[in-house]
Amino acid sequence: MKIFITLLFSCSLLWATDKPNILIILADDLGYADVGYHGLEEIPTPNIDRIANEGVQFSAGYSNGSICGPTRAALMSGVYQQRIGCEGICGGRKLNEHVVVGMPREVKTLAQYFQEAGYATGLFGKWHLGGERLFDKTLMPTSRGFDEFFGILEGASLYDDTVNRERKYIRQDTVIDYEGEYFTDAIGREAVSFITRKGDKPFFLYLPFTAVHAPMQASEKYMQRFAHIADPNRRVFAAMLSAMDDNIGRVFDALEHQGILDNTLIVFWSDNGGKPDNNYSLNHPLKGQKTQFYEGGIRVPACVRWPKGQIPAGKTLDQPVFLMDIFPSALEAAQITVPKDIEAKTILPLMQGKTNQTPHPAMFWKRAGKMAVRMGDWKLSNAGGPSELFNLKQDISESRNIIDQHPDIANKMNRLWLNWDKKNVPAYFGHDKALPIKVPLLHRKIGQKAKTLN
Does residue 430 fall inside a structural domain? Predict the structure, then answer.
């Protein structure tokens, strides 16, 4: 009996140490040009750069949306956010008791798959997928697969709200009364604590920083670090970015101290492009910004590190990929069965050098009457006026609309987008409960009937 128990314990320990940890770091409103490995010199980002330089960089890493919430819905669901009613922000500001606010409860999140597989799960930072204002606990992270949550439900908050006067800082499902640290530092603190306390269990850690989203607030420590930047607005941005990078460094240190760094799959991405006229980020050489489907609104810094998983260091991949592709990739890395009804594609074989195929023959965007589709090097978009066609390989800055020279390509891409759009559903948020809206048959058991979302 003693031998059996010893063997059982040994097998359990082996399972725990063999399973990779998963760490997804999401920046908020970070511009394509705002990282050192893309050539930024005025603001050092050594820890973000470490992920890129010791792993794979994606030159065409895309967010699924041009604003915060929709991209996060795609990441957590593994499907285009438009399929589940999350085309727009999941927590509208003008709410009343008749409004549904949050990613539909029927959608099984990435965190729930890991939780069911025995992983410790934690989210520290910005949720933005439900629960805010109406304070519906069934839409909060602790009801969506996360064992631990510290952060905000909304899209933004103050960074220095010591007494939580906005009532946005939450632990688990309860508003806290006091937070003594700058919010970016508090997120890093919680992540380090989680890594240190997780024991022998592998973990899934989602770290969506609020930086560098407005409001533009920085601690004096970081402002002094960038005294040489003359533009006061850019200086605050630099201080906020540096604080996030430092806290990513704290997470690196914790992983190294626990001896689990190289068996932790680390993802770094931004939820959308920067917004120079709001947070003073930079997207060059890309055109456009957050809220737009020009490249500056959706092509973002994106990189992945996992030495033990045979992801080589210092490799740049040019195949276009989505943030939502991390959903099946992380499950595959952890040897968890990938659901068949998702649209995200695993990019693990691509990163490991086992294939060079582009995961998506075409990629689609839609929000508020705007659209875009990328097919190979071609990009078709419409923001409410005349449609535009660009060849991104020849014109990454989208400076030359060549739709008149290639009408056949534009028409083909438009047909692709229209066929894709047929499967989308109206945005749930803002609809009255009295209006029945069918929930698509996603993440459901076979034979289960669709039901209206109230």
Answer: no
How would you label 433-448 residue by residue, b for 16+ Cβ within 10 Å and e otherwise?
eeeebebbebbbeeee
128 classed as catalytic: yes
Same domain? 279 vs 145? yes
**297 & 405 share domain:** no
**Structural domain contains residue 383:** yes
6 vs 74, higher pLDDT: 74
The model's pLDDT over 243-258, given as tens digits with 9 standing for 90+, comes to 999 999 999 999 999 9
Catalytic residue among 68, 86, 90, 303: 68
Q: Of residues 86, 90, 128, 213, which has the active-site annotation?
A: 128
Residue 3 lies in a domain: no
Query: What integer best gives the mean pLDDT of the chain?
Result: 89
Q: Dump the DSSP string for 28-43.
A: SS--TT-SGGGT--SS
Residue 311 to residue 326: CA distance in whole angstroms:
14
- Total H helices, total E strands in the chain: 11, 16
Do 114 and 199 lie in one domain? The reply is: yes
| Structure token digits, residue 438 | 């069918």
Query: Can you give the residue range of the structural domain that contains 78?
Result: 19-351
pLDDT higher for 416 or 14? Answer: 416
pTM to 2 decimals? 0.91
Shared domain check, 343 and 389: no
